[in-house]
Amino acid sequence: MDESVCQAYEDEIQALEEEIRLLTEKYEDLRQESTFFSDEEILKSIKSFQRETQGETKGHESPSDLKAQLESLETDLSFFTALTGFQFTSHSKKTLEKTRNRTVEKHRLSGKCHSLSFQLEFQLLEMQNNEKVSAVVSDLSIIMDSREDSDVSKFVSSTEERGSLLTFFRSLSVYAEWYEHRRHTFLHFK
Asked: Could you list the residue ranges forming a coiled coil in this record (predicted)?
């Protein structure tokens, strides 16, 4: 058999093995996440969900009301996207630990702000004391394509150290907006 054909088959086998490994990990994560809840908690959640959906369907008179509400939400989303420049493309959440008053979740978030792409990965620790809930971000990792500007790399590094998501989103919004203005200006002069 031709060596290039063998190599193509080997590459395909490796790709399939990697896909199997990723799917196995995803399955294990989902199975592990479902084991955090007892049967009683699951049944309680199902009953609560059923009550909510029954209440929602009683509250809406017709499908046209639902369609109008959906259109209103889409309008709001497009307004906020235009206002901030953020467009989120994916989000995943994995519960690492769950107790009565403490939850640790791992989040992965990706999107664009104007034309700049970003990916975030962080852990969110939520603790509930009495009626007060506090949240702490840790292990923040930011991936951005910042080849052209070393200041962006410095900003990303310092934001990761502080673990401040609010600072990241505010600063990225302003930077990306002016980045677009500069890009359009330079294209105008070319």
From this structure: 6-33
What is the pTM assigned to this prediction?
0.57
CA distance 140 to 162: 9
- Is 119 a domain residue? yes
Does residue 90 share a domain with residue 45?
A: no
**Residues 162 and 156 sit within 8 Å (Cβ to Cβ):** no
Check: CB of residue 139 under 8 Å from CB of residue 146.
no
Instruction: Look at the chain and report how many structural domains it folds into.
Output: 2
- Please tell me whether residues 4 and 94 are part of one structural domain: no
Residue 188 φ/ψ region, left for φ over 0, alpha for ψ in the -120 to 50 degree band, beta for the rest = alpha
CA 40 and chain centroid, separation: 29
**Domain interval for residue 41:** 1-52
Nearest to 99 by CA among 41, 44, 138, 47: 41
What does the pLDDT look like over 20-59, one tens digit per residue?
Answer: 888 888 777 766 665 555 566 667 777 777 776 666 555 5
Same domain, 44 and 89: no
Q: What are phi and psi of 181, to 5 degrees?
A: -60, -45
